[in-house]
Description:
Elements: H1 3-28, H2 34-57
Amino acid sequence: MNKFIINWLLFIVLSLIWGSSFILMKIGLQQLSPYQVAAVRVVSSGLILLPVTLTQILQ
Length: 59
C-alpha cells in the first residue's frame, strides 16, 4: 500500500480516537463525578503506556 494512503488512514484513526474521548467524557459525566472521569482517564492511559515503559526500562 502506498505510504501516502497509510499516513492518511493513521491520521483518520487518530482523529476518531481523539474525538471519541470527548464524547465518552461527556457521557461519563452523566453518571460519574469529574474527578472519577479524570481518574479513569489517567489510569487507562497508564495501563496502555505501561508495556512501552517496561520495554524501555528493561533495555
